[in-house]
Amino acid sequence: MTVATSLASLAIDDSIQLEQQGGILTLWLNRPESRNAMSLNMVTAIQQVFSQIADDVSIRAVILRGRGGHFCAGGDIKDMASLRVEAMNTGSLQPYVDFNRRFGAMIEQVDQAPQTVVAVLEGAVLGGGFGLACVSDIAISRDTAQLGLPETGLGILPAQIAPFVVKRIGLTQARRLALLGLRFDGKTALDLGVVHQVAPDDAELEQQLADTIQQIKRAAPLASRATKALLHRTLNEPLTQLLDNAAEQFARAVAGEEGQEGTMAFIQKRLPNWAEE
């Protein structure tokens, strides 16, 4: 596996690592000593990567994983301590506001990414890590993963991730999880709708990921990007307007290269040319 040249040129902090195999980019959260807690540097690095690949159709999917057996344990307490000093020196709460909002901007960027985003969840999936899982298109979890929203038990709010949690599992369940600060395993996460698949061991986790990647490769790149954008729009736009525009997109897709290739491949009983073996 090699890092793409364009991505390697970025000044990426070592809090993340990148691996690319064909059109699949794996982004590893790489602070295992802190269970991959989110530092400001990590947030910035993730934003850099997603900004760099936004218009790159060759990147079909981004796999989010954590080094050291954990996905992400939430925000970095050390960063919080330094913010406290800055706030005291300036007599203003703005450092806290800026830090928290920066994290929310990163979550929103991952949520809106045109690529298919797959989260592979192990160990701690807490706070901000839980929010990151909630904006993935596909979430695969070990049964032993520990997910939750511990913020209220720490005297703080899940401020930036709350909207994404509600979109993922609905207001009723989000209220219960956030207000009680509950932690739960992968099987419960499946029941709640946070994750889509649960693996009983590491080998099955890797197999489920491999199967998911294979399915992603069978979907047409441009059609996948347009479909994800369309699904996001269903939450915000009037239905008639949305359906009118969707019909126009459908027509362009049918007449386009992907539509013609996909139809011909179906008739000829073969894989389309974008489906890598």
SS strand fraction: 5-15%
Give the CATH architecture of the largest domain. Alpha-Beta Complex
Count of DSSP H/I helices: 12
What integer is the average pLDDT?
93
- The strands making up the biggest β-sheet line up spatially as 1-2-3-4-6-9
Structural class: alpha/beta
CATH C-level name of the largest domain: Alpha Beta
List segments where confidence is low: pLDDT < 50 over at least 5 consecutive residues. 1-5
Distance between the termini: 16 Å
Q: Looking at CATH, which topology of the largest domain would you report? A: 2-enoyl-CoA Hydratase, Chain A, domain 1
What assembly state would you assign to the polypeptide chains in this entry? single chain
- Specify the biggest β-sheet: 6 strands, mixed
How much helix is in the residues? 40-55%
Protein name: Enoyl-CoA hydratase/isomerase family protein
GO molecular function, one term: catalytic activity
Organism: Acinetobacter colistiniresistens
Family: Belongs to the enoyl-CoA hydratase/isomerase family.
Task: Summarize the model shown.
One of its GO terms (biological process) is isoprenoid catabolic process. This protein has 277 residues and is α/β, with parallel strands linked by helices. The protein contains twelve helices and nine strands.
